[in-house]
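Structure tokens
________________
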Amino acid sequence: AVLALCASDTLAMEDCFRHESLVPNLDYERFRGSWIIAAGTSEALTQYKCWIDRFSYDDALYSLYTDSKGNNKTAIRGRTKFEGNKFTIDYNDKGKAFSAPYSVLATDYDNYAIVEGCPAAANGHVIYVQLRLTWRRFHPKLGDKEMIQHYTLDQVNQHKKAIEEDLKHFNLKYEDLHSTCH
């Protein structure tokens, strides 16, 4: 999920979604866990390097990102509300409150998801590719300071064919997206 600077009943904002989901009934149990944003349609996403979301069993959300220069890490907490393939993220952490609606357009649950959202920080609309974050799949070299970026690139390369097939439904190509973590 990308930072949003607006607060409202966001699931009611149907007009912000431009695409029909290929996953009308998202299985939230399978979707829970950690996801890293790899690339998106909005260049504004690039200011949040390697954004990671952890969707928990109690609808809590923990997000972590690094600024675009790679200097400062920021962690924020929020809540999620899922309905079908749509969800709202409400952050209210450290005196900051913001909210945005999202829709899971496509996912294989184990490796990648394509998400559409309407956060103010992405100029009101974005489609992004996120990757399942599981360390058992990746074995970084000791001392690798860019292991998240290397993990992301490795996962994109492994699943690019499937990601590209799903992106075609939304008239997108992966190489046209703005990279956020590789």
Remarks:
- Helices lie at 28-31, 147-168.
- Strands lie at 33-40, 48-55, 60-67, 73-83, 86-93, 96-107, 112-117, 126-132, 178-179.
- Confidence is low (pLDDT under 50) at residues 1-12.
